[in-house]
Amino acid sequence: MKTTLTINGNTHALDIDPRTTLLDALRNHLDLTGSKKGCDHGQCGACTVIADGRRINSCLTLACMMDGVEITTVEGLGKPGDLSPLQDAFVRHDGFQCGYCTPGQICSATAMLEEARAGWPSAVTDNLEGETVSLGNGEISERMSGNLCRCAAYPNIVDAIREVSERKEVAE
Amino acid sequence: MTPFNYERASDISEAVGKPQFIAGGTNLLDLMKLGVETPDRITDITRLDMKNIEDHEGGLRIGALVSNSDLAADMRVRQTYPVLSRALLSGASGQLRNMATTGGNLLQRTRCYYFQDKSSPCNKREPGSGCSAIGGVTRLHAILGASEHCIATHPSDMAVAMQALDALVEVEGKDGSRRIALSDFYRLPEDRPDRETVLEYGELITAVVLPPAPTGKQTYRKVRDRASYAFALVSVAGIVSMQDGKIAQVALAFGGVAPRPWRDLEFEAALVGRAPTRETFDAATDILLRDASGQGGNDFKIPLLRRTLRAVLTELCEE
Amino acid sequence: MNLHHKMDEADRRNRLDDMAQGVLSTPMDRPEGPLKVSGTATYAHEAQPEGMLHGVFVRAPRLGRVVEKDDAAAREMAGVEAIISGDRLLRNPAQGTANEAPIQGATEVHYVGQPVALVVADTFETARAAAQSISFEIADADRAPTDPRNYDSPEDEQSSMGDLEKAMKEAAISIDQTYTTPSHNSAAMEPHASIAHWDGEKLTLRGSYQMLKYNRNELADALGVDPENVRIVAPYVGGGFGSKLGIAPEAVAAALAAKETGRPVGVAMTRQQVFESTMRRSETKQRIRLAADANGRLSGIGHDAWVSNLPDEDYFEPVTQATPFTYRGENRMIGTHVTRVSRTCAGSVRAPGEAVGVTCFEIAMDELANAAGIDPVELRRRNIAEQDPTGDQPYSSNKLDATLTSGAAAFGWDNSCPAPSSRREGEWLIGQGMASAVRVNTLMGSKARVTLDPDGTATVETDMTDIGTGTYAILTQLTAEMLGLKPSAVEVRLGDTDHPPGAGSGGSWGAASAGSSVFLACQSLRGHIAKALGTDEKDLTLKDGQAIADNRSVPLSEILDAPLESIGEIEPGDTGDDVRQATWGAYFSEVAVNAVTGETRVRRMHGTFAAGRILNPKTARSQCLGGMTFGIGMALTEELMHDPRDGRIVNRDFAEYHLPVNADVPQLTVELLEERDPWANPMQAKGIGELGICGAAAAILNGIYNATGVRVRDLPATLDKVLAGLDD
């Protein structure tokens, strides 16, 4: 079937099997292989992309359901030589080893910082009624728990995200 | 995943009567990839106008398409129904909560290993084929409400909190709309574990209605195999109000232990009007667990539920 | 102009310490980092060639013998190009360094989930649907059934020294306990995947593999072709942890399908297939006996291990590998016993042997410390041996004492033997636990080519892989250091069998072995430059693109008129036998156990490690973080659950095989002790990729005991096991 996807600001007209997930459309049809397939069942987070500003598992949505939605993949966040602040912080803090979960971690973290700015609580937030959220290590860890990393760069991932989060707070 | 016709509904009346809806897709696609669900036609309802949370009859009316994350973050929910916010936030991951919807969450299928493995007999998947979980690995399985045909549990956290809140499910069918108390919404497995709810063919969940918030303290406690991103082994949604040192009102629902979010009014009655002592809690819990039985691998859930419940009650009864 | 070196003698020259560039052993960022964080590093199932077909495996639904396959519906689906089955499909992956095909054939089903056919179609969606539509008639096998209770005790796996029974009887304090660990999965984030493409007789396979020089021979053998005609490319590997040591079913199936269809074929295993049909670490049962005097000094050690594998697999989990040389004690009995089961193949998962063997041994040591009333750090210190007690070999180095001391101080260890259940914060019981870390150190043959250009850039080429271990970083640093270049002037090309064969990534030998070959190649280039300057190599300083000797400083461009190339080759030699080589460390943890639910949280965890020269403290630390986190998983959450009736793995996904998530892991701390081990290799560096897991789980389990008084001997310590021992 015909569908139109908007990815990293570019429009792509596709004629695909309705069974195609957004992740498979990216990887098998659009040569955007930054989004990774780690489990294909929403259990690892490697496929995380940002849809209309929100992080989602691209493996658990059909491509044909996503027309009119602005999709951002890791390729849309930054490139070598022009990395986003989170991408750059991941490199300096060694927030990865094999790198396979990394695009998902970075997309997830990018949108997660916005969730925190919007005051969304998490399972470890003491005061549910607070208007603002302070991203300490515990909050970051809980909010990033939908992204598995078997190399277990978790402490470095937390350091990288906290650095960017704190820098943003100072800038505001 | 078998081929299917994809269509998108533009209004509710167009959707009603269709065999399989898709919204967040986080559970349906998961099961379609495994070959467990094989719809030949799916109706995309994501563009329907069911995304609002409205003040309603002193409570809230939550559109079926409200995402788990929007519901958890809604300030009215956080202030008035914290048990629901907490339950939602303890479920799945940030990514999944962004896609998963209120209606879809209610209809989640079990995480039973054998239900998900098409090569294992399963009465829920294929009625009459047998239950592989009995005699197999049963860590996830039910201690309450199971039958000899199925011992699977319902995996939702949200529905457990809603059960304690006496939520109503609003559905639209060919013959108009109706409201079903959540306590009547799920069936027990008995000899037809494939029939999980009382929904009729083609009925669409349009909203969940929360009555005015009960007085008292609310909490949701989830016990699981890792610190985050895991299904409940046992969870407790609790609401308790106290008066003159005695328990005045309670609503308690349990997850991870039964084929549906579990509530037991007889157990609750055994708490009301009594002082919040360990003896009170234990005597009432004996009623809750009067028919509890394990399968070996899940026997631990009986003491775990007893202990967790005692801690929740102790916390909620503190004045 | 090549340089070959056999490691027959200790190398005490410490040549790397003489270099001047100052980039080795610094925490340099990974050079490939920008590619990885931007999604532009390409893994196996990426850079898909034009016209690639998709292959999806069909799994065996039950044990037995395939009698008939009903694939009529699949064949009728539009887009289905081929269905591959038959004698060449792999029953299971090759074991690490096998260098030949594993057992082949898709008729005898030895474990549920065994791949029995591959469906090839023009799209992934069609291939998957077609694969799911195929059904099988499987009859009971006419082979002998496996019996998990029937253990074989291979003669050369049993050893004894002195009289353990007597030592146990005479001991002031003795421990005799049995421990169990479940099957584990490596669970690398990138599922196994291959893209095969034939050009005439030449096969190119883009794969996700750890040891390409072996994989090439294994693949060629499985296909019945000349290895010369096989090229494997794996520039980026999304994690391995042992699971990608040997060629796996998808590579062979992709190659067969590409041959049959005449088109490139890509096969990516599903996560469920990775769980079912790659490798598991065998479950283990371990009986550990310790005999000690009143001061905790060991006089006897017994360690028996029971493990399993499929019929006709030679590999068994080497559980007791470190037991002979870790501690003192003159009476010993050590044995391994193997049984045959109808379960997914058992093979290497990060630190085969020590990961589970040291872990259980270190729990037993904690039991001894408690029984003797001795601080567990002190108990270990008292039992450090002068030399390998069984082999009469000196240690190349033994840093156990140093890591224990330094680690205890860094962590803030309470050496007063605090009683179990003595610290409580609200619902949480708090305890401390520690364990030693030990892992054998190995050198493997490895080759690398280094080319120095007159423009002052260098290129390193080897089929060595970087599976997240930091190979790109350390080989860049090493080359820059040896040749006096900025790291940005060095390009490292890995993961291609067209390059000289490297050691491969596995057994913690990658950095030291591949690094040594690069070191040797660079040394020979240095010799050439020195000669051109008329000086001796050891008097030559290379820095910032300048060659400096005899008060002269000349740009490399003036010395070289053409690219200068050298192949370095390291060969293991007598130092592997003359001395006992190992890496050492110590873990310390603070755990909190919920008194209501039995849930455990690791609050703090520290590791101090010594592994010779540390080539890059940033990537080395990350390897240790990874190992320790594997330890957290082993201690608390990870368990492949086998159905008791047919052995199938029931929790074959990430929802129910519980890897630690971010919230399970605190901000771990790591300390690396500086060391030079002259016996290891010319770089005096040793392996660090696995040391971090070898005993880590014990530090947590011992912490649970200290917090609660509950001794969990059946891993993982899920809440039900802890709960069983807590007060109601």
At the fourth CATH level, what is the homologous superfamily of the domain at 350-442 and 578-723 in chain C? Aldehyde oxidase/xanthine dehydrogenase, molybdopterin binding domain
Q: Shape of chain C, please?
A: globular
Coarse shape of chain A: globular
Count of individual beta strands of chain A: 5
Q: What's the alpha carbon Rg of chain C, rounded to whole Å?
A: 26 Å
Please give the CATH architecture of the domain at 350-442 and 578-723 in chain C: 2-Layer Sandwich
Low-confidence segments of chain A, ≥5 residues, pLDDT <50? none
Query: Hey, which two chains have the biggest interface?
Result: A-C, 66 and 65 residues
Task: Tell me the fraction of residues in β-strands of chain A, as a range.
Answer: 5-15%
Main sheet record of chain A: 5 strands, mixed
Order of helices and strands of chain A: EEHEEEHHHH
Can you put this structure into words, describing what you see?
The complex is a heterotrimer of chains A (172), B (319) and C (728). Chain A is built from five helices and five strands. By secondary structure, chain A is an alpha+beta fold. In chain A, helix 2 crosses helix 5. Chain A starts with a strand and ends with a helix. Chain B is of the alpha+beta class and 319 residues long. Among the domains of chain B are: 5-46, Uridine Diphospho-n-acetylenolpyruvylglucosamine Reductase, domain 2, CATH 3.30.43; 217-317, Enolase-like, domain 1 (2-Layer Sandwich). Chain B has helices at 12-15, 28-33, 68-73, 75-80, 82-89, 94-99, 102-106, 113-116, 158-164, 182-185, 265-269, 278-288, 301-317; strands spanning 5-8, 21-22, 41-44, 53-56, 59-63, 168-173, 176-181, 204-210, 217-224, 232-243, 246-255, 262-263. By secondary structure, chain C is α+β, with helices and mostly antiparallel strands. Helix content of chain C is 25%, strand content 25%. In chain C, strand 20 (458-461), helix 12 and strand 21 (490-493) form a beta-alpha-beta unit. Chain C is globular. At the A-C interface, helix 1, helix 2, helix 3, helix 4 and helix 5 of A face helix 1, helix 3 and helix 16 of C.
